[in-house]
Specification:
The chain has 547 residues and is mainly alpha-helical. It folds into 2 domains: 387 residues, Na+/H+ antiporter like fold; 122 residues, Alpha-Beta Plaits. Helices cover 66% and strands 4% of the residues. Strands 1-4-2-3 form a 4-stranded antiparallel beta sheet, with helices on one face. The protein is elongated, with a radius of gyration of 29 Å.
């Protein structure tokens, strides 16, 4: 096959996936699920693109997941996760073990009913449960951040910490149970515990030490070509992943801890590195989910046994094993109310990690590996579709979503970025006609103290304004402030000015008429008061001056 044809197919795959990302926001569907569907569309049962190299798929998935975990660690602030470190770590270890155990026992019993002619040993049932026992970091990071959810009780950092650090536990369980399933023996509980402890400890130490070394390297090395610094970080991420494997630690935990240490430190060229990794993370998500979508054969998912078992396992995971594991694990923490624990139970999102672990089963050629892969893939689709779409609605229903305050816009039209050492916040405000109702000069905007509009963009022209500068519709202000909260309130007031004259924001026609009448009366009162004031001034001017 010509390399040009392969590149053409790859470019079409990525192009189609990028377009579906825009569609996902309109439909309210997680973009990751659409990436999977695009891969299935182009696959063997769709447009006929055949891909069945499980070892290559495992390599692509591992590399992409390591980049996603490293970038997720960099984006996580230590001050956010420190208050929920115990809860997150327990969910990532004990919670995963409980989820795998409850789900595995349930599968073992269910297989007797749904697969009467198929013998499924307990180790194989536990292996199927282990592959799907963890929450997926790519799904959790992507969905929580794309929906821009603000949650009470520190739930968001706890969920991100859990999803970033629970893959190691699932990976260890999967690796151990693959060996047990291949040997045909019974699982040794003490051996599993020992391997889990060793891999977690070594993975944590490797990630911490390599992360510290990377910070030192970035600050000490002096490269003439500054564009090589982000590439140095990417290379270090891959190095941490590979080196930890040879140290007998868990590579996924190591790259997450390495990213956490690196992202919370001061180092040179931080802005360009973060921007580079953000784009690379999106590319990794695309590549990983497309590859996994290409690997599946949709006609196998429609097999009645696979379909029935997949749906039953999904129901067990969503409503029995995951909630039970969360309630038991978080029972000592009274600061998280019941509704908060219920929401944590619901955010058991599946994604690339479970499918990647299922591919490990295929590569190892364990008994019933294809059945495990298809069931895990189907459970992932159900999780992304049902849980991914409903997360924000469930958060509001349970009362754990914070009031959605008006957020300051990111600076996009001005190419600036403030260092982390500067506590000021930069934002941009686009001027609309209704914002100028009370005056069109900059001083009429009513910005709070310690807030400056330092530049105006008008079309393709830029200028530094003064208080008397006249603003026009379509102008964009670059604003810097030390008082973020007050500026948010001011921005909200400017938005309200824009809305108050538009009936679209009122509930019905009667309410609109009532509000409009009130505004007319208020306007008449102001004009009458203004006329009385003018008459009074004229009368005072005509009165004789005292000698």
């Amino acid at each position: 096959m010509a390399i040009e044809f392969i590149l053409l197919i790859l470019s079409l795959l990525f192009f189609t996936s990028i377009l579906t990302d825009k569609l996902s926001s309109r439909l309210g569907v997680p973009s990751l699920m659409l990436f999977l569907l695009v891969g299935m569309l182009f696959g063997s049962d769709g447009l006929g693109l055949s891909f069945d190299n499980f070892n290559l798929a495992e390599a692509i998935g591992s590399i992409c997941l390591s980049v996603i975990l490293f970038s997720g660690g960099m984006d996580t602030r230590l001050q956010d996760i420190r208050p929920v470190a115990r809860e997150g770590i327990l969910l990532a270890t004990i919670g995963v073990l409980l989820t795998a155990t409850i789900t595995g026992l349930a599968i073992w019993q269910l297989m007797k009913w749904t697969h009467a002619g198929l013998s499924l040993a307990l180790p194989t049932a536990l292996l199927m449960a282990a592959t799907i026992s963890s929450t997926d970091s790519a799904s959790v990071f992507s969905i929580l951040r794309s929906k821009n959810m603000m949650l009470r009780y520190n739930l968001r950092p706890m969920l991100e910490l859990e999803s970033g650090s629970n893959d190691p536990m699932a990976a260890v369980l999967t690796t151990v149970l693959i060996g047990v399933a291949q040997s045909g023996g019974e699982p040794n509980g003490w051996m599993i515990v020992l391997m889990v402890v060793v891999q977690l400890v070594v993975g944590f130490l490797a990630g911490f030490l390599f992360g510290k070394f990377l910070v030192w390297l970035m600050n000490k090395v002096n490269l003439d070509n500054t564009s090589l610094y982000p590439i140095l970080v990417l290379t270090s991420c891959i190095f941490i992943f590979a080196m930890t494997y040879y140290l007998r630690g868990n590579s996924f935990l190591a790259v997450y801890i390495g990213g956490l240490v690196f992202g919370n430190s001061k180092f040179a060229h931080k802005r360009s590195t973060v921007n580079f990794l953000d784009g690379l993370t999106n590319l990794a998500q695309l590549a990983m989910f497309l590859t996994l979508g290409l690997l599946v054969s949709p006609h196998e998912l429609w097999d009645k046994n696979v379909l029935l078992l997949g749906v039953i396992v999904s129901v067990i995971m969503c409503f029995i094993s995951r909630p039970a594991a969360v309630m038991i694990t978080l029972s000592p923490f009274r600061n998280i109310p019941f509704r908060g624990k219920m929401f944590v139970s619901w955010v058991g999102l599946k994604g690339a990690s479970p499918i990647l672990f299922a591919i490990m089963c295929l590569a190892a050629n364990v008994p019933n590996a294809r059945l495990i892969f298809n069931v895990v893939f189907l459970c992932t689709l159900v999780s992304l579709f049902v849980q991914g779409i409903s997360i924000d609605k469930v958060a509001r229903w349970l009362g754990v979503a914070e009031t959605n305050k008006k957020k300051l816009k990111r600076v996009e039209k001005f190419d600036i970025d403030l260092p982390e050492e500067i506590k000021s916040v930069a934002t941009e405000i686009e001027i609309e006609a209704d914002m100028l109702e009370h005056g069109n000069r900059l001083m009429d905007m009513g910005f709070p103290d310690n807030t400056l509009a330092i530049m105006v963009r008008r079309g393709q022209q830029f200028f530094v304004p003064s208080g008397k500068s006249v603003l026009q519709e379509g102008d964009t202000l670059l604003v810097i402030t030390d008082n973020k909260k007050t500026l948010q309130e001011t921005y909200q007031q400017l938005e309200e000015r824009r809305k108050e004259w538009h009936p679209d924001f009122l509930d019905d026609t009667v309410d609109f008429i009532r509000q409009f009448s009130i505004m007319l009366r208020e306007d008449r009162r102001i004009r009458q008061a203004h006329k009385r004031e003018q008459k009074k001034k004229i009368k005072n001017n005509k009165s004789p001056q005292s000698p």
